[in-house]
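As the work plan foresaw, our protein records have gained a structure token line. A representative record is set out beneath this paragraph:
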Amino acid sequence: MNKIGTLACILLIAQLGAKAQFNRYIVQFSNKKGTAYSLSNPAAFLSQRAIERRIRQNIPIDSTDLPVSKDWLDSLRAIPGVTIINASKWLNQVCIQTTSADAVNTINAFPFVKRTSGIAPRIGQPADTINYKKLDPDIRPLPPSDSRINQVHGITSLEYGNMFDQIHIHEGEFLHNLGFTGRGIHIAVLDAGFQHYLSNPVFDSLRLQNRVLGEWDFVDNEASVNEDHSHGALVLSVIASNRPGMLVGSAPHASYWLLRTEDVASEYPIEEQYWAVAAEFADSAGADMISNSLGYDVFDNPAFNYSYAQRDGNTAMITIAADMAAKKGMLVVSSAGNSGGANNDRKFVGVPADGDSVFTVGGIDVNGNIYASSSWGPNGANRQKPNAVSVGAGTVIANTNGAAATGSGTSYSCPNLAGLMACLWQAFPEFTNMEIFEAVQQSADRYTSPDPRFGYGIPNFRKAYEQLAAIREIRKKDSLLANSWMKAYPVPARNDGFRLIFKAPASGQATLRLINVVGQVLETRKLDVSVGQMYFVNYRRALTRGVYYIRYEDGTNKHTLPIMR
């Protein structure tokens, strides 16, 4: 998990202020003195559900949870010509609107202001390259000759209709057949608008059962997203459709927050601020997950573009916010992007897909072939991206009147996988967000040999379920590591490996060596560990009967664990 660091991108933005006509700015504060809230009373700024999520995952409530200082906000409001658009507590900054250079100079002179920087041009001002169609998907009606309703094999509890293939490629029906369909999981969908969701028949049960928990437009600051862009509704249909026999999505019984953060008329980093504030709202409201089908690397003003080096998991505002959302216990799932066909550094994932605690989803078709436009993963150490793939080429979706259609893009592979992850979490609510993250990743078919296109590959939710069920059973039997800090267990339903579980005795880099009885090193792994954290390591290799050893070293501690096969 990344720590919140200095927003390096703000330094670049600050240099641009004198060269561009801005009237929206980011004001970053140096502290939160004067906040009207206290850590001793978290119920004043977090819902009970948000507090319970932290308690369940042993996450402390800290200063990043506190809203920004009321005193600092009052100081800004007192300046003539300044309007506060929104505030981000995680980034400790506000977005303001003003056309007054004197106002900006006054703000910069405040001792509690770290920096002020232009982030977007005046509302209504023509951009260098207005891209109204940047989210327009390639939507095609599903003709009767291509109906997939009759392709369902075996007995399933849900009548998926045309969506079966994209569920089945992950054995998602295994979870659904056990009754895990996302019920009780709250998912925040951050997108560009949810046009006609109030009248779309695939969302009838969503509305009738009051499973739309709320909606908010962070771009226009209003409580309605039904009249905005259709992209979010198309994305929502992949995960939430519930029209038996025609279209049933990957989490048809989950509950949803519908949040608009994308302004399709232009592309500026202010949309990252909208996203961060929306993610904070989702956290405070008690959402369990974020499904994000937005990404950024190129803006209307090229000076704001994120280079490959800046897409490092630490620089972009939106990435820092996404990793913070994960730190607060939410499971953050994001599309990888659709620039894989580029012949330059644009082919790599954008932001927030570069976040190390973001589960990034690339695209494939229902036969497991890579989607040509799916963005590549970066080559940096410990930044395997994407994390996995799902159906993003020819994905079956519902158009805005509820008819079956197909669309392509990682915008659709993301919610397809996010929905199944919600179902898995419903089955194992006592597990943390990152334990669900890791179980899904480990279930993928390329886990032992990931690559920049597929990541760890195609997750299998039967395997993920079996792994978590085994861990649950271990915890029930002996409180996991009672009387020992390291143990090994066989993998249920498999005879070709074992699972190592240990609680790190120190922080640093640990080395694990698998050694046979004659002292030959069969495998070496290196892990960055933090003291007191639990780690699960799967060894998926055939071992003949006999005695083996795991030798652990971290620079301070050494331990050898015998394993009988």
Remarks:
- The chain has 13 helices and 23 strands.
- The two ends are 35 Å apart (CA to CA).
- Confidence is low (pLDDT under 50) at residues 1-20, 124-133.
